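Technical appendix A lists one of the benchmark inputs used to test multi-chain prediction within the project. The record comprises two sequence entries:
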Amino acid sequence: MSQAATQYNAREIHELRETLRNTNPVDVAERLESMDDHQAIMLFRMLPKDTAADVFAYLSRDMQENIVNAIQDYEIAHIIDELFLDDAVDFIEEMPAGVVKRVLSNLPKEKRNIINHFLKYPDGSVGSIMTIEYVDLKEFLTVAETFARIRRDGVDKETIYTLYVIDSQRKLLGAVSAKKLLLSSPDDKIGDIMQREITSATTADEAESVANDFRKYGLLAMPVVDAEGRLVGIVTVDDILEIQEEVATEDFELMAGLSPSDEPYLKTSIWTLVRNRLPWLIILMLIGIIAGVILDTFEDAISAIPVLVTFIPMLMNTGGAGGSQSSTLVIRGLALGEVALHDIFKVLWREMRIAFICGAALALVNFIRVLLMYNPDTLGLSVALLGLSVSLALWITVFMAKIVGCSLPLLAKRLKLDPAVMAAPVITTVVDASSLLVFFGIAKAMFGL
Amino acid sequence: MSQAATQYNAREIHELRETLRNTNPVDVAERLESMDDHQAIMLFRMLPKDTAADVFAYLSRDMQENIVNAIQDYEIAHIIDELFLDDAVDFIEEMPAGVVKRVLSNLPKEKRNIINHFLKYPDGSVGSIMTIEYVDLKEFLTVAETFARIRRDGVDKETIYTLYVIDSQRKLLGAVSAKKLLLSSPDDKIGDIMQREITSATTADEAESVANDFRKYGLLAMPVVDAEGRLVGIVTVDDILEIQEEVATEDFELMAGLSPSDEPYLKTSIWTLVRNRLPWLIILMLIGIIAGVILDTFEDAISAIPVLVTFIPMLMNTGGAGGSQSSTLVIRGLALGEVALHDIFKVLWREMRIAFICGAALALVNFIRVLLMYNPDTLGLSVALLGLSVSLALWITVFMAKIVGCSLPLLAKRLKLDPAVMAAPVITTVVDASSLLVFFGIAKAMFGL
């Protein structure tokens, strides 16, 4: 790489550095992303040492990889060492093996061991989003001693607004907020002012359910303990905001039949987008064949009463929509912790009543519109009987769709699958196939075909 | 109401109060919700005065209304006065007119005026979620004086971790974090240590876009200014966690054809759930008629080649799924601020390429499966020609579906509608109708009908 310095004189570089130092690292990262790689790397190397790591944490994985490939080993080691541990682990998880090896081999042994340990936590677990930059205290410290400690250690911690109290075995005893410290007298003992009843997580907990606790209790941070109750890390609210957004986006994508993607839409390559969509489309297309095969078996009925065909789109759309209403509410309820597995009978009983009422109303509206739209003379059969068969099929379809829609996500959860993943294709299949069977079954019976 | 005290002796009450005082208000509220109304009100009245308001803020609107109806005017006034302003405003917005009148008339005039002012901010605006319990500072204060001020005023503030610096006209000059204060020397002047470049919002901004800023910059609080740049309130991260969750839930519901609801699924009445679902189902059902009418016009083609009918479910499902993949990504991108209105041509160009590739792959798979599944002898026509017409129709359908799917949310946004709201019904209509027109048009041309 060419040296950045060749194109600027000393004063210009000084000014640029000052501007960069006073700009929020998020905005610097955004500006780097909009430049070509060469320029971006040049500018990155001009960043003051202490802000380079901050900026690095906010870059896209492509840009991070480019930078790591362009800079010296000692520079990499410095940046990764300066990152908060959760950001360092995120970065290493995203990089190709060659880069990972180079990065890890340049770190101090202790840091390398910690990172290797963190890399083992499964994706989506609390362990994978926690960090170790917290302040811990002992019960016997006074408030004044605690302030001294914050002044000494606090600058590199992710938060100093909640401090955790541990015993000599590192077992978590309680927490004290900076607010409480500020409102207490300097001689108060931590053990006397700390809050003993605190919510904690374990490394194996789901990040999603911890996010629900943050929202419920309005937390800024939560301690993470191991199986023996020893403090091993903290989760902070900024990571929870991201997790909550990512989990919702993943559910949106799964429910629309898309393989989830971490990257923003406009930054994802066309081929990745095709790869995320095509398998689902092919599955849904093949599933459509089942409905086609069923239709094929009713060829006689269709040629006897061709008008029956014109009700198929309406039946399938209404059934599909009714099913996805129910599945969406249950999937969302499960995600937010408002619905649990043991609520299945409550959910079923509610959906049965709702389906009964909605189905009846739809059947009525449909019956009236069939009476209004069709003329018995041109049709050559009883319009009332036609309306009745369509309406009855509609009612049953909506009923089945809602039962399937509400129970499938719960079933998926029971099987430890993501409830969102089974929604679209399975509901469509079941509803399409059964609505056709019901409709033609009823029509054949009513018209004696 | 009977007096709670009659059923407990003095020591029991004391113990119960102590337990309640040491329990998180969120958990007390949850316990109250699980009791019958009479018990819940009794227990609520036993709460120590200083925790009653905290608990009240976390109760459901039904329980809040029950309690307000059961207690004395002076008790109401006390609770509402103790609430953070944003919680008080939320509560009053949800209550029926009679309750609102009674609550407001018992408040001090000044508080009443502030609440009336806040009630005017539109739902979903920053004004509607901000609060006024913040600490403001002047530039000339020292760090030591600031700590004294936090000790004096801080106890009733929503946050003391970000403090806002204003001039004599209340214009926002900057912010200083409690961390910065703790790491500075007592004689430092606020004006010298404060951060001048800070992100702020106005009361009219959308809460959703402010949530994106919180996530982007990892904020704990954001100042809110009026049109003249004067500090009028703050938004805190706990409210942002809720807003982010509510906005996502609302989009999930709109996209599934549901009127959004604030209450958790299991706590919503059957009739409310029916009311949220039925209008959409009726609309979708009536929309299904359009596809039926189109099918009706192709009666000749269907009676000439009955097997054509069996491809309808597959065409409609694949088209619908292809469209909802595109609309979901665009809706989510808009919500997260990753896609903007001016990106429309970029989005269209991406979706056209993706649709071309996905459509081609689907057409190919479909062509092969038609060749494999159908026998020209029993069918009485060219299987290759049949496969070709279905595959061509499928390709065009997927293409149209993706173009419609990606442009409709952007169009809705342009018309200042919620992008999520137009997704399901309009895409379904357009895709269903046009896929039938294309399919039968191609089939008629190919088979010379």
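Chain A has a mean pLDDT of 88. The two ends of chain A are 81 Å apart (CA to CA). Comparable benchmark entries are summarised in Table A2.
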